[in-house]
Write a structure and sequence with these properties.
Elements (H helix, E strand, L loop, with lengths): L1 E3 L9 H7 E3 L14 H20 L6 H12 L5 H8 L3 H13 L3 E5 L7 E5 L1 H21 L5 H18 L3
Antiparallel strand pairs: 1-2, 3-4
Helix pairs in contact: 2-6, 3-4, 3-6, 4-5
Length: 172
Amino acid sequence: MLRKTNVTKSQSGPKAVAAGAVHVPAPGEGKRGEQGYLGYLLRQAHAAVRLTMERTLADLGVTSPQFAVLTMLNAYPGLSGADVARLTFLTPQTVGVIIRNLERDGAIAMTPHPVHGRIQQWTLTPRGATLLKACRQRVLELEKRLARNLDSKAETTIRRWLSGIAAELKED
């Protein structure tokens, strides 16, 4: 990919663009490839997966953060909004908006906590479970694509490595 830089009016023609162009590496090239910082490469991979997921779920009317919320509520029914925020790496404000929208659409329902009445617990409704199932089918195809060139041992190693990073750095 080429990007124009400061080309003056006195410079013209194809050589002016070439002389003033800077090569921006594509994913997999230079510092965006194997020579890049691990943190950057993780972020780059996350951005690519998230964009693909957004496109995959768009016609269902579900965003990546909404999918994450639905997934966590399915796995751990009765979570509070604060718990959902921690598990999905979203701000409490963002989760609040997502929860309101999912509740409005009938995908989740709130029940008060049996002991702490101020805590709201969220669970999937049958509509939410159906929506999540449709999303999961598409996301599982993306997951297969991500692991396409990995044998089961390599995939297990990578999963262990990624979850270990989160565990190791959680206190930082």
